[in-house]
Amino acid sequence: MKRREKLWVIFALVYAVLNVAVPYTFLKDTGSLLGAFLFWNLITASVLAAGVWVTSPWGRDRTKGELQE
Amino acid sequence: MNATMLLAGVAAWFSLGALLSWHARRSLGEGMIEYFLADRKVGGFISAMTYSATTYSAFMMVGLVGLTYSSGVGSLGFEMTYLAATVILMVLFAPRYWAAGRIFQLVTPSELLSKRYGTPVAGATAAILCIIMLIPYASVQLMGIGYLFEIISGGTIPFIWGMIIAAGVSFVFSWWAGLRSVALTDALQAIVMLAASAFLLWYISFSLFPDGLSQALYARQDLLRLKWSFPMFVGLTLPWAFFAVTNPQVVQRLYIPATVSSLRKMIIGFSAFGFIYTVLCVLFGLAAAAKMPGLDKPDNAMAMLLSVVPAPLALVVSLSIMAAAVSTMNSVILTLSSMFGRDIVRAFVPEISEKTELRLCRALIPVITIICFLFAKMQLGLIAVLSAMASGGLLMQLPAILGVFFWKKATAAGAISSMLVGGVTVGYMYIQGLKPLGHWPSLWGILISGVIFVAVSLMTRPPENTALFMSSVDDFIDPRFGS
What's the pTM? Predict the structure, then answer.
């Protein structure tokens, strides 16, 4: 596993904990769109944006020829 | 809605899809890789759209809307967790599947297990598990269309005819030109799904909620509080979180992008599609709950919303729901037929020619379609249980899949026993309705499956070519996917 992938796994674990812990503790009883609704939108958007970043080196290929991508 | 109008819409949509299939057929070459993987030459946009349309079924616009209607914001957490987990897994697994597919000329996801574990029994076990779990899942797509057409046509189009239409369309789109056809029609269907949902939200925001949806939700603050119990959240989310690596119809799509940048575009495109589509579907559920509370059947929430919008808009949204169901079903059927040929028939009759293998796989497409139709026609309560069980049952492949890429000591015996014991355990618990300590069968199943995988693997010897397999994949990935 490469360094960037290891960072990605750590990020995923932090996400997994926050994704459940925050709504089930701090936001459980917030009855507005600014509660769990906003939180889950934001945390998911963060993961998707991080996905764009972590895949940014893909295709910056150091090989040539048939499999040049 | 007028049945004639609905059927005319279906005919127009089918004609457009059939035209795309015909176009795909013209460039269809020979062989299994060509038919089931479009020769691994699919561009980024089409890859993203076919992945999205295959992943998101009619559940989104019917089931998720109903779930949000009845249980509120917890359903957003469930679906967003699924999306984020899928992207996390794709970043880790897509390069590996893509590379392994090219190095070993793989056609199906289970074939990877056979290759890594050095025995066709590993792939055959996974293939049988997938066939058992996915036929009910595909049948539910047909049932969804049957019910939808019956409700929105006011009973003029009976349940059975809605299913016949959906099964016929699925068959044509998948059989005619294999994945080339499915990928193109999926792209069309994904665009229809997203555009129709966006139009619907725009319309209901302005016509049903002139003061704004957020204002209307003040009266339904209960839906914005988290009402899901923790075991329910885990029980529903856990199997779906690993969908990206355990459901063969989406895993097979990791083999198809033409280049590394196409693969990246697939992930980014799916991320954008999934996020927008999820938010829209949840908003429909909240809107329905605010506007028409007290429905006996929450799954009818979307149908009720459609009853208060203009007929042309209702028609387009209904077609988008049908598109979601068909695009999921034809992908499942195509993948299962390839698994039957490659992982079951070829595994035990290795001398079979590729031409015969492909002929057998194609012959199986109508057979699986008919089996799904007959299954759905029975309308058994058991189908709902089996469908719910599908994601939990498929999850039992997870330890074996992780072992392929990340654990050198993983063995064939460990992989096979973990899938068998896990699958039987989950199946038994679902059918019996068992939830020990309040936790769902998928959680117990994956714990048991994981322990068996590790224990049996440590007691047996890994295949001799394990190190070679792993280094081949790593060597292929390193120069192409950066550091």
Answer: 0.94
Tell me which of A15, A32, A58, A64 to substitute to probe the interface with B (most B C-beta atoms closer than 10 Å).
Answer: A58
Assess B205–A contact: CB distance below 8 Å, yes or no: no
Residue B112 falls inside a structural domain: yes
Q: According to DSSP H, which parts of B217-353 are helical?
A: 221-224, 230-241, 243-246, 248-251, 260-291, 301-306, 311-339, 346-348
C-beta of residue A12 within 8 angstroms of C-beta of residue B88 = yes
Nearest CB partner across the interface for A61, out of B262, B275, B479: B479
User: Which residues of A fall within a CB distance of 8 Å from B84?
Assistant: 15, 19, 43-44, 47-48
| Chain B stretch 148-177, residues whose beta carbon is closer than 8 A to a beta carbon of chain A | none
Residue B254 half-sphere exposure, CB side, CA atoms within 13 Å?
26
Contact call for B221 and A32, based on CB within 8 A = yes
Residue of B78, B83, B218, B226 to mutate, testing the A interface (most A Cβ within 10 Å of its Cβ): B226
Mean pLDDT (chain B) is 92
Q: Which residues of chain B make contact with A6, given a CB cutoff of 8 A?
A: none
- Domain presence at residue B152: yes
Query: Rounded CA gap, B288 and B302, in Å?
Result: 7
Res. A62: pLDDT tops 60:
no
CA distance B181 to B190: 14
The end-to-end CA distance of chain A, in Å, is: 21
Give residue-wise pLDDT tens across range B375-411: 888 866 665 566 667 888 999 999 999 999 999 999 9
Structural domain contains residue B469 = no
Residues in Cβ contact with B168 at an 8 Å cutoff, skipping those fewer than 6 apart: none
Query: Residues of A39-62 as b/e, b for ≥16 C-beta within 10 angstroms?
Result: bbbebbeebbebbeebbebbbebe
d(CA B38, CA B32): 9
Contact A31 B483 (CB under 8 A): no
B91 touching chain A per CB within 8 A: yes
CA–CA gap between residue A3 and residue B410 (Å, rounded): 23
Whether residue B263 and residue A58 make contact (CB cut-off 8 A), yes or no, is yes
Q: Has residue B449 been placed in a domain?
A: no
Q: What is the CA B326 to chain-centroid distance, rounded?
A: 11
Most A CBs within 10 A among B225, B236, B266, B408, hence the mutation to make, goes to B225
Domain that residue B112 falls in: 3-379
- Which CATH number goes with the domain that contains B157? 1.20.1730.10
B152-to-A52, B121, B195, B445 alpha-carbon distances in Å: 41, 47, 20, 39
How close B125 comes to chain A (CA, Å)? Answer: 28
Residue range A47-56, pLDDT digits in tens = 999 999 999 9
**Residue A65 CB neighbour total at 10 angstroms:** 5
Domain count, chain B: 1
